[in-house]
Amino acid sequence: xxxxxxxxxxxxxxxxxxxxxxxxxxxxxxxxxxxxxxxxxxxxxxxxxxxxxxxxxxxxxxxxxxxxxxxxxxxxxxxxxxxxxxxxxxxxxxxxxxxxxxxxxxxxxxxxxxxxxxxxxxxxxxxxxxxx
Length: 132
Fold this sequence. Notes:
This protein is α+β, with helices and mostly antiparallel strands. The protein has helices spanning 15-27, 37-42, 62-70, 100-110, and strands at residues 6-12, 33-35, 53-58, 93-98, 118-123, 129-131.
């Protein structure tokens, strides 16, 4: 039973998004409840029809909770790329999958994979491919 003194501060189309919001609010020591989570898990097509997964807080925390949920903290994150090219030392690298095309072709031709592909990095400056 949901109490009468709870107010909806946000609604999300998936339970995962609602739990991320709940974790943010709980970190600020705001009591929070999630409604309709299990309904959306079972019947995900009903999400828009019933208003999504609702995040509820007590009335006295509503203003603070709405402000916290509306904040965008993405500027506070630092991009960390510790991978460098072993050949030239460049940080201009991308994720690369070694052996993906041949594995896919063998799978298409035979119907089962004979070998597996591996994840690695590729340097955009010198072209060196390294397996992690």
